[in-house]
Amino acid sequence: MAYASISPHPALASCIDAYWSVTGPAEGCTTSRILPDGCVDIIFNAGEDMASMKSGRAYLVGTMTRPFDSRIVPGTRLLGVRFKPGGFSAFYRFSSLHEITDDTMECEKGLAPEIAILRDPVAGLNAFFLEKLSLPKHVLFPVLEDIQCHHGLVRMEELAKRHFTTVRQLERNFKYHIGVSPKEFINQVRFRHALHVIRHKQPDEQLADVAEACGYYDHAHLTNEIKKYTGMLPVQL
């Protein structure tokens, strides 16, 4: 399997995290585990039919709250657009991203570029999204940056107060523009930071120390969160 990630045009970088591609192996198959990251993706299937994605079609993949195993086989050819949390609103009007959380739906015509852009994907995607770009009609970006800067170590009440809003308004905006509640998003940010710390910890560093540093109640709480979002125990990472 070959995976590549490409940065979008600088004018799109505040809303689009990356363009990415996956090409299947020459023979055999492999499984790639995708972890929740608070992002929404549009995926183009330019290869053979997959279990849930037909060849030549584009799909909107909602924000994930659990890990997902993707089976990659010979003939697989995917191109994806990964939107930063809250960034989808800069390009589309929609009912609510909460409706497709942990789900995938085929894109309606006009929602995504024509599959022909895959002949020159970066240029095609940049042109398409630059034309659609408009300022999001929400004020979540400073809130999201605050959560990420603190690695998820923030209380909802404090967050609302700092950004001159209410917990209830945060709940509505997060579910609409991101697809999950602010509490779920905070938990994911904290988990991803803890995952980074675990993967780079010193040999003599204990998991209990990681739990304390990352804001978990104890070793068991950290273990449960790691298992929830990866499907594995910390020692298996």
Count of beta strands: 8
Radius of gyration: 19 Å
Beta-strand residue fraction = 15-25%
- The secondary-structure class comes to alpha+beta
**How far do the termini sit from each other?**
20 Å
Unreliable runs: none
Q: Mind explaining what this structure looks like?
A:
This protein is an alpha+beta fold and 237 residues long. It has two domains: 2-132, Jelly Rolls (Sandwich), CATH 2.60.120; 141-236, Homeodomain-like (Arc Repressor Mutant, subunit A, Orthogonal Bundle), CATH 1.10.10.60. It has helices spanning 121-132, 141-149, 156-162, 167-177, 182-199, 207-213, 219-230, and strands at residues 2-6, 16-23, 30-34, 40-45, 58-61, 68-72, 77-83, 104-106. The chain has a six-stranded antiparallel sheet, with helices on one face. A two-stranded antiparallel ribbon has the order 3-6. The chain is globular.
SSE layout and pairing:
Blueprint: E1 2-6, E2 16-23, E3 30-34, E4 40-45, E5 58-61, E6 68-72, E7 77-83, E8 104-106, H1 121-132, H2 141-149, H3 156-162, H4 167-177, H5 182-199, H6 207-213, H7 219-230
Antiparallel strand pairs: 1-2, 2-7, 3-6, 4-5, 4-7, 5-8
Helix pairs in contact: 5-7
Question: What attributes does this structure have?
Answer:
single chain, alpha+beta, Jelly Rolls, Arc Repressor Mutant, subunit A, six-stranded antiparallel β-sheet, globular
Quick recap of the structure?
The chain is built from seven helices and eight strands; from the N terminus they run E-E-E-E-E-E-E-E-H-H-H-H-H-H-H. It is of the alpha+beta class and 237 residues long.
